[in-house]
Write a structure and sequence with these properties.
170 residues, 6-stranded mixed beta sheet, 4-stranded antiparallel beta sheet, elongated
Length: 170
Amino acid sequence: MEYKASLNTLGKIITGLVILFFIYMGYESISSFIKTPDDTTVLYPQIGAFVLLFLVIVFSYLFAPKAYKITDSELQVLRPVGNKKFKLSDISEVRFVENSLKTVGIRTFGVGGLFGYYGKFYFKDIGSVNMYATKLGNRILITMKDDKKIILTPNDLNFSSDLKEKMAST
């Protein structure tokens, strides 16, 4: 069973603004080089900045969650590159996140809006979590047997009951 994970409006706005900003910065880099083509003190930093901005966008897109899949033995976070897989037998609890936690936690190492909200975050009430989210609502907290926590945000809220049902049948 596959469940889509659509980017929310805030994520779309952040993504659009960041891409526009990066395009502007790339344009400024190229125009600086055109004005002084023989000055290598300008050339190398401009090329470096352009490559860095390009890589930020590419890697952010490649590791952003696009959907979630429940198989007979695994829960998978589907991404353009490097799907994340969790064994159903390693999951101890699945529950909706309460309304009081529907704010973005403190991002300790991750992305906070560019193609989604994913990486390591810290929430006061639940501690450190790995988020593979595309919106701030529909949060489902998955606790693993080793106490690691994961937050997913599927479009379809039947995901939670389907995951529990699949876990019970394994």
